[in-house]
Amino acid sequence: MAATLSFPRPVFAKLSPHPYLLRNLSPADPVANPPARTNGRRPRESRPVHVNASSLSHAHGSALVRSGDTTVICGVRGEILPVSQIPLFRPRENHYGPAAAAAAAAGDGPDGLGLGLGLGRGELKDYDLLVPNIELATGAAPQFLPGVPPTALAQTLSTRVYSLLHGTGMVEGGDLRVWFRPSSAAAAAAGVGGEDVDMGEEGVEEEEEQQVVAYWVLYIDLLFVSFDGNPFDAAWAAVVAALRDTKLPVARWDPDREMVVCSRTETRRLNVRGLPVACSAAVFVEKEHGEAGAGENRHWLLLDPDRLEESLCREVVTMVVDCSEGETRVKSIEKQGGTVLGRELIRGFASVAEERWNEVKKAMK
C-alpha cells in the first residue's frame, strides 16, 4: 500500500491559505469544533490590547500600543508657531477675550449671528496645527525594506489619521492658542506693553481683551516596531493614548523680547474630548477572487484581522465609536472594496465596535 503524502498544519496553511482558513471556519461538526480562524481566534474575537503611556522621555506625550504582534509607538511634541509666521492669518472674533466672545455669542458680531465662536476647529486645518506622520520600520514585516521611499500604506494611514483627528474634534484650536493681554494702564497710556497670559488662563477680567500671539503645533509621529495586520486600529489607539498623555509647557508672551517664552517647570495637560476607538473587520468569502460556481457564496466577518487574513480578504470595514458620554456615537464609517457588507450588516457591526471600545478603554486606564 502506497504511503499517503501529508503536510503539517503550518505548512498547509502557507501552501494553501484560503482553503485552510475556509476549512477552519466551516468545520464538519460546528458543535464539537466551533468555527475558528488560522490563528485560533473566533471570527469576532479581537487580539488583546496593551497600552503603555509616557513611553518616551523627550516628548510632551507618548504611548506604546501592542495588539497581538502589531506594535506601534506614538510621540507628540509641540512647537510654537507665532502668528507673524502664518501668511494668511486673519484674527477672528473668538481670538479675543471674554468681552468679544460674549458679544459674538449674543449675536453682536460682524455677521450678526454670533457665528465663528466655536472652539477653533477651522484653525486646526487653516494653520496646520495637527501634523501626523507614520513610519513603517525596516524589519517590522518582510515587505518593509531599507532605503526605500515612504510606502503607499504609510501615506494612506497618515491621511486617515489626519482626517479622523479633525473629524472627531478631540483637540480644538482654542486649546492650542497662546494668549497675550495688554495691561489696562499701558494700553491706556501708549497701547503697548502689558502682562502676559498663558494658554487658556481663567479668571481674566472681562474688560481686558486677550489677543492670540501664537499657536502650539502638535507633531504626532508614529513608528511601527512590528506589523501583523490591522495597522489603523493600533495607530489610532496610540494617537489617542499619546494625546491624553500630552502636557504642554505653560507659554507666555514676553513683550520686551517680542517672543513666546515657555516655562521649564509649569505644564498644562492638553484637553482631549471623548475617547474615539477604531474597530476594523475584514470580510472573508468562501470562493476565491475570480472563482466561478453556482450556489451561495458564504462569508465571515473577521474582527481585527492579522496580516495573513488581510491578504485573503478584499473587503474591510472600519467603524470609529465613542461611548464616553453614556451613549454610542458613531464618529466615522469607512468601507473599502467588495459588495458583501450592506447597511444591515454594518448597522449590526456597531455592537461589535461597542465591545471593542470597552476593551480599549480598560487598556488605557
UniProtKB/TrEMBL annotation:
Q: Where is the Exoribonuclease phosphorolytic domain?
A: 45-82, 130-249
Major subcellular site: cytoplasm
| GO molecular function per UniProt | mRNA 3'-UTR AU-rich region binding
Protein's cellular compartments: Cytoplasm; Nucleus, Nucleolus
Q: Which domain of life is it from?
A: Eukaryota
Q: Which InterPro entries match?
A: ExoRNase_PH_dom1, ExoRNase_PH_dom2_sf, Exosome_comp_Rrp42_subfam, PNPase/RNase_PH_dom_sf, Ribosomal_Su5_D2-typ_SF
Name recorded for this polypeptide = Ribosomal RNA-processing protein 43
